[in-house]
Amino acid sequence: MWEELVQLDRDIFSFINGLWIGRFTDFWLFVTQIEHWIPLYLFFFYLLYKSMSWRKGLASIGMVLTTAVFTLWCTNFVKNNVERLRPNNEPMLMDSINILQKPENFSFWSGHSAVSFAATTIVVLLLQHYKPSKWYYLFYIWPITFALSRIFVGVHYPADVTVGMIVGLLTGYAFYKLTLFLFEVLENTRKR
Asked: Does the keyword Amino-acid biosynthesis apply (predicted)?
């Protein structure tokens, strides 16, 4: 049963990865680079800072960064214990897939997927809490595109990306709740 699921994951990966061979290579290489998304993070920080008091804004930015670091730590802990080979390092796949990057570390779960979904989730929920707008949900276009790029460049399986998304959503939600709790504690402390 487990081997069948692993094989299904490989087959889906090969299909999706094969859709883009020779097409949009520069786009997917651009999308998958973390540093290209720094302006978006700065925009998130600006929105958080402007949507609430300056103290809460700065604290929210700190919590987004804490969420990202915690998610990355959890990701690396799991990757180093599960030790699933990336598609680009898998002998059965290496010669038949589109490989645009060649990281040597392990695959499960996708750090790009987990961290981007965690950061986006806490940002969207905090913005919704303090300055509601349905437009904030459009921010999820970023982590979806970012996560999918990992399949297209040949370094993650669909299961890696999917589990990373779920971990990111749950972690972002948990840190959002923690942030609200901390804000409440601080407000109660200041009133005394």
From this structure: no
Phi/psi for 117 (5° steps) reads -70, -35
Residue 108: inside a domain: yes
**CA 71 to CA 77: how far, in whole Å?**
10
Residue 143: which domain range?
38-185
Residue 97 lies in a domain: yes
User: In a structure prediction context, what are the per-residue pLDDT tens digits for the chain, which is 192 residues long?
Assistant: 778 888 888 888 888 887 766 678 888 889 888 899 999 999 999 999 999 988 899 999 999 999 999 999 999 999 999 988 888 888 777 776 777 677 778 888 899 999 999 999 999 999 999 999 989 999 999 999 999 999 888 889 999 999 999 999 999 999 999 999 999 888 877 766
